[in-house]
Structures are given as C-alpha cells and as structure tokens.
Amino acid sequence: MNDTPPVSVEEASAPAPWDPSAVRILCVDDEPNVLSALRRMFTLEGCTISVADSGAAALLALADERFDVIISDMQMPEMNGAQLLQQVRQQWPHTMRILLTGTADLANAVAAINEGEIYRYIAKPWNDEELLGVVKGAVAFASLAQERDRLFELTQDQNKALEEMVETLEEKVQARTASLRQAYMASIKAFSGLLGLRNPKLLEHSTRVASTAMKMAKRAGLDDALAQDIFIAGLLHDLGKIGLSDRVLNTFIDNLPQSDFVLFESHAAMGATCLKGLEGMDAVSQMIRAHHENFDGSGYPDRLSGEAIPVGARYLAVVEVYEELMSGDYDGKPSSHATAMRTIIKNRGSLFCPQAVDLLVQVLGVPPAPSAVHSAPPAPTAKPESAAGKDVSAKLTYRHLVETIRKFSHARIEDLRSQPNGFLWIHVEREHGQGNPDLVTWLKGHGFVWAAAQSAWHFPF
C-alpha cells in the first residue's frame, strides 16, 4: 500500500520567488545586434543566456538543453517566430514562449498568441524593464503550472492509496474525504497566496467578490456545496491575471489599447486552465472561465448567453462589475454605491442575469431613485453639422469614432451634443438588435449606453 501521507494546508507553498541564477533563457533572432542586446540585458540580471540565429538552430539547442523561457523574433527567414514557438509548444510545452514583433506584425502576433498559446508578445524596440517584467511573469506562471501538476499527481497518488485500503466502506470514505479535502484546501491556499504575491489588490478584490457572491448564493437557497464552489470561484476568479504584465494590470480598463485588451480578456480562460485536472475543481474552473460572459451573449471568451452561463458565473459577473465600478478600475473614478447599483440595474436582462441583479440588490441594498430629470435620455432629433469634429472624451476622438463606425454598415452616427441635454448617438438598424458583437464590445468599452426605445447607443457624458 502507498504510505504517502496526505498534504496539509500548511505544507502547500506558493512558487519560489524570482531567482535569476536559476533561470535559463534562449534568445532567437537573425540580427546579431538584437541578440547582443538581449544577452547583455539578461546577463546583467544574472540569468543564464543562450542565443540562436534561426529557428532551426533554436530547435537544436532545445533538444540539447532545458530552457525556462524562449524569446523569439517574429520575422526570420525560412521559419518565422510564430512557427518556431508552435513547434516549441508541441515538443517542450513547459518552456514559456515570448514573441518579439514589429508594429507592422501586430495582427500576426495576436493571431500567433491565440493559435500557438504564446505567453506574451513584446513590440520592438522593447523597454528593458518591461521585457524583464514579462520574463519574471512567465517564470512565475510556469512555476504555478508546475505546482498545479504536482498537486494533480499527488492527488492521483492519494486516490490510488485510498483505493488499496482494505478497511470498511465507511472508513474508506472518511479517509478519502479527509485526504482530498486537505489537497483541495492546499490548492486554494497556494493559488490565493500567489494572487496576493502578484498584487495585493487582486486578493483584496477577489475576497470581496467571493464574500458577496456567497451571500447571494445563500439568499437564493442554493445547496451548501454549490455555494462553497461559488465562494472558491470568487476567490480565484482573477487567477489568470498573474500572467499579465504590471503595465496591463496597472492601467485602467478603459485606457487599455486594443492589443492589450485582447491579452486582458484572456485571463478568464487562463485562470480556468490553471485549475484544469484538479479533482473537485471542475465546477469552479467553469465558473472562472465564464465570469466575463454577458447574459445577452456579448461577453467572452465563449459568448455564452442566458442559462448556458453557469449560475455561479452569473453571480460573479454582476459582483465583479459592481466592485470594479466602486474601486474605479474602469477609468480611475470610483462610483458611489448608488451610482454603481443604478448602472447594474440599468443593464438587468442585457449584460446581467435578472435573478443575479435582484439578489445583489437584496444583499447590498436598493439605491435611491434618480431624479426624474435624468430618468431617461432625450430622444434624438436632427443632426447639427456644427458639432462634427469635436472629440467624444479625453480617451476617444471624434475622428476615431467615425473611422470605427464606418466599418459597420448597419450603424450610423448622430451628434446632438450642441443641443440642450443632447447626446452623441450611434443608431443601429432594428433587425440587427444592439449591433455586431464586435461593435457592442467596442461601444461598451468606450462608455456608450444602450437605449432600447431608440434602437441606439448614446454617450451620456
């Protein structure tokens, strides 16, 4: 019989802190000056560096040595960086993959990230501090994956040991429950501890989300097991953000450029992947993956809608937005409780599950009713030509708006801001609902609000 003792919560540990002397990096570029610059930077940091001037040379080096990180240029003859890193993923999946690319290759770089599971891309010319931060994040993420695999293997060993026991059925069940519970709690402690190490605000935010979501689950009468899964999912819902750079984490959501927003959106799927295979974590993993899905199907990563979204994820979605509004994560301007709740209620049945909104209101309290003057946006009339050309906000120029809306034939702009109580409107043909999903995401991300009566979006500020 396998005598491996069960893991206690105290024995679980977070990944080791950054130790450059233990990190091996392979840099690949056909330009000697680029390789020289990379070698100098990482050697000064204390890392072990190897270089290759082509994809073929890099594959030979990987076959002979173990590397923690590979950094490859995108544009290389015979085999480009995306093709190289795809082969690395297949043959050496534990080597973290980073792509260097020029501005002209941005679209190809994003496609490579999606198809080849590349950890990050860095635009040339790079900032040394940012590149070093990305490498540190990659090593931490790899350490987390190794910890996940270790816990998974340990759980398998414990299950095998429990199956070999020849005690009574009741004793076997009790022993299995105790052992798995210890491994389960060890996993949660390790992952939540890693969140706190990456960014203390992430853990504080996640703790508030978990607490409120569990209160909603209790108010809804869900069974204890499901309520506990919702709490754990709330605690770990931002686990995937440990793979994001400091720059992305510290930038307000509304200020993220599109390329970084694509990376930001990946955190839900990345967090779910971290828990994949851990026994007892299937439901939690599904909730984490779906916590940014919208009730109307406009969310990510799978564009689920309605009851196809796990009930726990529907609760987390509405609490997540409330907390982000309260803390000012969108634009740096924290909302009051009343304003945040009115925003949530306004999107009941569109972005948010109606039941989840009602439960949040019950748990946190009803906001005071807004004044009648602001109860509804004014109806659009004629477009004044004098308003054309004025920027929408500090973050969005009118020219950028026009260029974006031109891409969607079913939408048109009507600018009434020069009129009393006037708004900037984006009209959508009725047969297209709120519009193309990409248009809906873009408009929401820039502060536009849907007005169903007018079949239009308006910018109310």
Brief characterization of the structure:
The chain is of the alpha/beta class and 461 residues long. The protein has helices spanning 32-45, 55-64, 81-91, 106-116, 128-163, 169-198, 200-220, 224-236, 246-249, 258-265, 267-275, 282-289, 311-327, 337-346, 354-364, 398-405, 437-445, and strands at residues 24-28, 48-52, 69-73, 96-101, 120-123, 411-415, 424-428, 449-451, 456-459.
Order of helices and strands: EHEHEHEHEHHHHHHHHHHHHEEHEE
Mean pLDDT: 80
CATH superfamily of the largest domain: Response regulator
Could you tell me the CATH topology label of the largest domain: Rossmann fold
Tell me which CATH architecture of the largest domain applies here.
3-Layer(aba) Sandwich
What is the CATH first-level class name of the largest domain? Alpha Beta
* Shape assignment: globular
- The structural domain count equals 3
Number of strands: 9
What helical percentage do the residues reach?
Answer: 40-55%
Relative strand content = 5-15%
Largest sheet: 5 strands, parallel
The tally of helices reads: 17
First-to-last CA distance: 69 Å
Strand order of the largest sheet: 2-1-3-4-5
Low-pLDDT stretches: 1-13, 371-389
- Structural class assignment: alpha/beta
Rg measurement, Å:
25 Å
| Quaternary organisation | single chain
Structure characteristics:
461 residues, alpha/beta, Rossmann fold, Hypothetical protein af1432, 3 domains, five-stranded parallel beta sheet, four-stranded antiparallel beta sheet, 17 helices, 9% strand, disordered N terminus
